[in-house]
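Example 9 (inverse folding). The structure is encoded as follows.
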């Protein structure tokens, strides 16, 4: 599978995917990344890719022309085009699974500044996607998160296939069961005895009974 990133900061993308499991997966040919410097398609000597907003308003918008040219440079390899945007649909595990199942390349357009000329969303992308109801300083972070969530579903990325089956969010509002490692007791906090018993049937039953669920009231702790 291939991931394309249209970005102002290719080094951010490359840095993330040049270490850990991501690097190993790329070296094994499980997936590949391609970063496209948006400024290469600016069409002006100053390499500017943003401009002021029609009708007035604070900040600058990324222009439609360089983004369009960057997409054209990918030809048929652009696959599914995703614009990371606060106004996009919230990304979740089911979307990650569906994107993986397509087997198509994914091309991410990262937003910056005040945003992106609306004609990009209107005419050039297949999906607008958000990580949640908050704003971050650069769309690169969202692009990386989505690509990571999809790439780890690819065959061979994780050593044990079972690792994917028991993960959080495979079922609505249900998280993975609590897990522990050595020591069996620390500071008076003990690992449940059943997990030390070696009785696999009892362990499986305990895990099913103790799966975490998302608590919508956690904000009350703030």
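The amino acid assigned to each position is listed next.
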């Amino acid at each position: 599978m291939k991931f394309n990133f249209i970005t102002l900061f290719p080094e951010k993308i490359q840095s993330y995917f040049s270490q850990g499991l991501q690097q190993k997966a790329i070296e094994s040919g499980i997936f590949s990344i391609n970063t496209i410097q948006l400024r290469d398609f600016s069409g002006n000597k100053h390499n500017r890719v943003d401009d002021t907003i029609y009708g007035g308003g604070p900040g600058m918008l990324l222009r439609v022309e360089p983004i369009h040219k960057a997409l054209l440079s990918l030809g048929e390899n652009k696959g599914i085009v995703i614009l990371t945007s606060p106004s996009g649909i919230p990304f979740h595990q089911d979307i990650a699974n569906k994107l993986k199942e397509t087997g198509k390349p994914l091309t991410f357009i990262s937003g910056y500044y005040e945003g992106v000329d609306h004609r990009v969303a209107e005419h050039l992308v297949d999906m607008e996607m958000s990580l949640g109801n908050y704003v971050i300083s650069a769309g690169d972070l969202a692009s990386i998160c989505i690509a990571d969530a999809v790439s780890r579903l690819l065959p061979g990325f994780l050593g044990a296939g079972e690792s994917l089956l028991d993960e959080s969010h495979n079922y609505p509002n249900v998280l993975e069961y609590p897990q522990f490692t050595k020591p069996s007791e620390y500071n008076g906090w003990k690992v449940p005895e059943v997990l030390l018993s070696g009785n696999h049937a009892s362990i499986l039953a305990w895990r099913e009974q103790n799966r975490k669920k998302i608590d919508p009231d956690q904000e009350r702790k703030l």
